[in-house]
Amino acid sequence: MKKIDLFFLGALVPTDYLALLLAALAAYSLRFGPFAELLETTVTISPSSYLANALFFSAVFVMVFALAGLYSPRVRRRMMAETPRLILASSTGIALVIVAIFFRREYFASRFIIIAAWGFAILFVFAFRLFLRTIRYALSRSGIGLTRLALVGQSAAGAAIETTYLSQFRWTSKVVAHFPRWEEKTRDELAAMRERKLIDGIVIADPSFPRDKILAIKTFVDNNHMVFRYVADLLGTEHASVETMMVGGVPTVEVRRTPLEGWGAIAKRCFDLLASSILIIILSPVMLALAVAIKLSSKGPVIYRNERVGEHGKLFDTFKFRSMYTELSVGPGYGGEKALEMEKKLIAEKSIKQGPLYKIKDDPRVTSVGRFIRASSLDELPQLFNVFIGNMSLVGPRPHQLREVEKYESHERRVLAVKPGITGLAQISGRSDIPFADEVRLDNFYIEHWSLLTDLIILVKTPFVVLRRKGSY
């Protein structure tokens, strides 16, 4: 799911809440404004009491909307198709208000307000959602946020799907290429298009497509972090995380690589923001003390910036406390080519890891303070700011250097499907001791079975693993 769609999906909750609150206030203003004389009553409702209850019941409505599926990540649903669900959910919300009136008459003393609030709720929520969709569609017309798809295969179903994308889904998706077969030339063309960021996903549009080629396309899609959709029943029940939709009367399935899509991504980002903010505040005295110790022990900057590969292969700078002498540190602004040559020599002579990664034991470039903060993993505390910024997560696969990622096997690139983390399942399972193949296996398991509970368990276990100093040099 594109970030722009995540933004608009997440925006539905606060805008719905605001619309519901305004609907309640509009009903109150109408009752005790233009209709005050027509609907005489001896009972009055204080504005403060009404507002408090309006705030509460607006939240109840939002929960009802969630149960009714109005916050489903299925952004393709048309507004008019969503309206009956909206009316039903609003009616359920009002029914809960009526039940509250029955048990506690002080909540609302006016039946007019209830009826008006119900009507205004439907009207305002519809209007607010229509406004959001209008903005989203305006951006799509400018080419922003469109999911660009390539169809593979020729069939009547494929023709119906392509026609439907062109007519009904033109604001969210666009067919940019159509290949009748899957062959080496097709793969190379799609790889080139993906490299130039011209395509986001592949749709297999032929129900009789050969199974070996389906699996080849699936591998290609996974390795390039793309959307994958297919005509129903091509893969049977092989994938549990799927979403079925009707496109041109044809049941089409989208395979989800990870639960970290839609609300999963929003929940994880909110958790990262909240937790990293709290940890930065709590650990700021520790970070300040470490900064002073590093500055007094050796010349150079306190923070070491190192380029790493992040989500979907994007490059970013990680922040770490500098643990090596500045002139021996690799990277722009540090030791330059001389430092890089020294590191290559040390990797050849003293690396304790096999595969694309390296780990230098008894590294002579490390300072006395650096040796301590590495062994205790305190050098990674500044990465909390990476989490706050958004290019890392608290939990996820480790971020690796570009020269390491370039040595990955094709299937090993699947770990780039999500943001890298400060800690992760591989880190609590052995830190630097486990082979890279096992690290990839654990990271892929985490990606495919993510949950907030898993993140919490990993975060709780991390300090105990660090205290044992297992796998750190």
Tell me the layout of helices and strands.
Blueprint: H1 3-31, H2 47-67, H3 79-103, H4 111-141, E1 147-152, H5 156-167, E2 173-179, H6 184-195, E3 201-204, H7 211-223, E4 227-231, E5 242-247, E6 250-255, H8 263-297, E7 303-309, E8 315-321, H9 336-350, H10 368-375, H11 383-389, E9 393-395, H12 402-405, E10 421-423, H13 436-448, H14 452-467
Parallel strand pairs: 1-2, 1-3, 3-4, 9-10
Antiparallel strand pairs: 4-6, 5-6, 7-8
Describe this structure in words.
- The structure is a single chain.
- The chain has 473 residues and is an alpha/beta fold.
- The protein folds into three domains: 3-141, no CATH class; 147-255, Rossmann fold (3-Layer(aba) Sandwich); 263-467, no CATH class.
- 51% of the residues lie in helices and 11% in strands.
- The protein has 14 helices and ten strands.
- The radius of gyration is 28 Å and the shape is flat.
- The chain starts with a helix and ends in a 6-residue tail after the last helix.
Supply the number of helical segments.
14
Structural class: alpha/beta
Tell me the total number of β-strands. 10
Unreliable spans: 234-240
The proportion of residues in beta strands is 5-15%
Going across the biggest sheet, name each strand in turn.
Answer: 2-1-3-4-6-5
Averaged pLDDT? 82
Could you give a short description of this structure?
The chain has 473 residues and is α/β, with parallel strands linked by helices.
Features:
473 residues, alpha/beta, Rossmann fold, 6-stranded mixed β-sheet, 14 helices, 10 strands, 11% strand, flat
